[in-house]
TrEMBL record:
Sequence positions that bind GTP: 103-110, 185-189, 243-246
Region (Disordered): 381-403
Domain of life: Bacteria
Domain SRP54-type proteins GTP-binding, first and last residues per copy: 264-277
NCBIfam families: ffh
Localisation per UniProt entry: Cytoplasm
Cited function: Involved in targeting and insertion of nascent membrane proteins into the cytoplasmic membrane. Binds to the hydrophobic signal sequence of the ribosome-nascent chain (RNC) as it emerges from the ribosomes. The SRP-RNC complex is then targeted to the cytoplasmic membrane where it interacts with the SRP receptor FtsY.
Keywords: Cytoplasm, GTP-binding, Hydrolase, Nucleotide-binding, Ribonucleoprotein, RNA-binding, Signal recognition particle
Gene name of the encoded protein: ffh
Protein name: Signal recognition particle protein
Amino acid sequence: LSDRLESTWKKLRGQDKISESNIKDAVREVRRALLEADVSLQVVKDFVSAVETNAQGAAVIAGVRPDQQFIEIVHNELVRVMGGDNAPLASAATAPTVILMAGLQGTGKTTATAKLALHLRKENRSTLLVATDVYRPAAIDQLLTLGRQIDVPVFELGTDANPVEIARQGVAKAKADGINTVIIDTAGRLQIDESMMAELAQIKETVQPHEVLLVVDAMTGQEAASLTETFHSQIGITGAILTKMDGDTRGGAALSVRQISGQPIKFIGVGEKVEALQPFYPDRMASRILGMGDVLTLVEKAQEEVDLADAEKMQEKILSAKFDFTDFLKQTRMLKNMGSLGGIMKMLPGMGKISDEQLQQGEKQLKRAEAMIGSMTVAERKNPELLSGSPSRRRRVARGAGYAESDVSKLVSDFQKMRSLMQQMGQGRFPGMGGMPGM
Ligand code: GDP
Ligand code: MG
C-alpha cells in the first residue's frame, strides 16, 4: 500500500490545489490498497466515499501542500472510522463488573481472558475467571494454568456442568467474595453455529454482562466483517479485542469490525504471552493500515532534527572509552529535538509493552540527570571518576541541582555501568554479541 500511495502523493506534489482529477487517482489507489489490506468491500466503499467528499471539501484550503493535505484526510478519516480515541473497559457502579468473551475457536479468547485479568490488576481491579468451555477438557485446564501463572482465581465446575449455570454461579461467587470484575471465557466453534450462539445468548441473558467482547483474529481479514455482523446482530457486542496483531497483518479487520458493529476495539493482542495486550489506539492503527508505519515518521523526524554526521560521531564516541557527561547531555538534547522520549519509544518496534508510567518515569529521570550534570564543573563532566571519589563534590552538585547526594552517586554509578557496557559492545565483548559481524 505504501508504495502505491507514495507514487500517488508524488503525482500530487508540486501542485497548488487538490483537483478533482487527481483526487480520483488517489481515491482509486486508496480503494485498491485497502482491499489488499483485507478490509471488507462494503467498508472500503463507505470509507473511500467519505475520503472523497472530505478531500474535495478541503481543496479550497490555501497554503497547504496538496499531498500533505491528502495524507491527512485519508489518515483522519481512518482514525475517525475506528473511533477516534482509545475506549476503556466498562466498570460497573456496583461490583462485580461482568465481562463476557465471545468469538470463534482459536481466536485467542482464553488467552485474552488471562491478559485482561493481568491488565485489570494494574488498575487495582481484582478478577475472577470463569471457565464455561466444557466441550474440551483441555480448555478448562488451559484457563486454570493461565490463572495460576498470573495468580488469579478460576471458577470451574468441571466438564459435566451446564455452561449457563457455571457462568451464573461464577458471577455469584465473585459478588460474595467482593471481587471487582468477572471475566467469563466461553466455548467457541470453528464456524458460527446455532448451538454456540444460543448458548452465548443464554449466558448473556442470565448474567447481564456490562461488556460483551468479541475476540477477533486479525489474520482473518475479510471474514472479520461477516463474523462481526453475525455476533453483533445475534448477541450484541459492546467492543472487540483484535488478537494476533503481532503477525504481519495490516490490520484491515480493525476497520471492518468497527464500521460494521459501531462498537470500539478496546485492545489488541500482540503475542502469546499474558503480557502481550495493548490498548487499541485508532491513530496508530490508521498508520499501520496505510502502511506508513510510525517507524517511518520517526525516521523522518530524526532526519529533520538531527545532524547525521553529528550522530555518527556520537556513536563512535559511545562505543569508545571517551563518552562522558558532556556527550550524555548532548545526546539527551538530540533525543529531545526529536520529540518527547515517550513519543519516540512508542514508535520503535517492540517497544509497545512499555507503559505510559514507565515512559514518564524515564523522562523524569532524564530531566533529573540533566539538572545534575548542569551543576557539574567541566572537569567533572569529562571525568565522572572525580565525583565517585569525592563526597564533597557530590554534595556540591546535589545542592546545586536540588537533589540529594545519593541521587548524584546513583547517577554517576549508573553512568559508569552504562559506559562500560557500551565499551564492551564496542569491542565486541558484549555477551552473545562477540561473534556478530560489525561489532
Ligand atoms: P480460544 O480458542 O479462542 O480460547 O483461543 P486460545 O486463547 O486458546 O488461543 C489460540 C492460540 O492462539 C493459542 O496458541 C494462543 O497462544 C494463540 N494466541 C492468542 N492470542 C494471540 C496473539 O495475540 N498473538 C499470537 N501470536 N498468538 C496468540
Ligand atoms: Mg478457549
